[in-house]
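Review form for a predicted model. The reviewer records the input and the model, then writes brief findings.
Reviewer: anonymous (R2)
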Amino acid sequence: MTAARAEPGGALRLVALGDSLTAGYRLPADAAFPTVLERLLKAKGEDATVANAGVSGDTTTGGLDRVDWSVPDGTAGVILELGANDMLRGTDPKVTEGALAAIIERLKARGIPVLLAGMQAAPNLGPDYKARFDAIYPTLAKRYGLTLYPFFLDGIVGDRVQHLDDGLHPNRQGVETIAAHILPTVEAFLGGLRQGASR
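Model under review:
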């Protein structure tokens, strides 16, 4: 099934489905996460494109509402990065988990594999909320047999130099760090997609 989901010439088409962290909030298009990741993949010899399906302010429920038209037919795999806005709003982790599970099931029904990018709750939300929220991503990855990248913001948390002046969103340097950190996981994900295509 995956074999048909390639650009002419064999490039695998990925879609990054996410919120402002994917969309590239207040950044030029060439500094957004999908564009930076695609550049890093090509530098490693990976033949893949990464479409930007990030919407600033999106929640997991919002992502579920638009997943069918945000991920076009012919997509080889999805990098799913949602949940930060749920956390900032204090959304019940059950709601977040349910929406993410529904997105994953929609994509699985279409034969589209998912790389799940985890999020972690801020400590100021309290230890109970943090424990429940942080458990969402490993739980779903185990349940659905997904590739998991444990924490999308790994490498920039607490580093003001890599954030915009709002202290929440990565700047150009921060996006470069995020993309570099997730790169090996994405390469492994692509390897699995290619293996699936060759069967």
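Findings: The mean pLDDT is 94.
Further findings: Residues 172-198 form the longest helix (27 residues).
Recommendation: see findings above.
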